[in-house]
Amino acid sequence: MPMIHVELVEGRTKEQKKELASAITKATVDIIGVPVEAVKVMFVDLKADEFMEGGVLRSER
């Protein structure tokens, strides 16, 4: 059972997450040959003020 953990800065829509999860699931099935039902995708939304890139808070960009 593949468990795929995706961390994103908050702000993505439900539809975007569904589309991404669908693409990840399809790629996993195609590449490693597991049944579609076995693929689990978990999203974690990171608050923009708790995530830094290059020493700058994402919320301050």
TrEMBL record:
Top-level taxon of the source organism: Bacteria
Keywords, alphabetical: Isomerase
The keyword Manganese is assigned to this record: no
Entry-linked SUPFAM superfamilies: Tautomerase/MIF (SSF55331)
Annotated TM spans: none
Residue span(s) of domain 4-oxalocrotonate tautomerase-like: 2-57
Single GO MF annotation: isomerase activity
Keyword match Isomerase: yes
NCBIfam families documented for this protein: PRK00745.1, PRK02220.1
Protein family: Belongs to the 4-oxalocrotonate tautomerase family.
Protein name, UniProt field: 4-oxalocrotonate tautomerase
Organism for this UniProt entry: Veillonella montpellierensis DNF00314
Lineage of origin: Bacteria, Bacillati, Bacillota, Negativicutes, Veillonellales
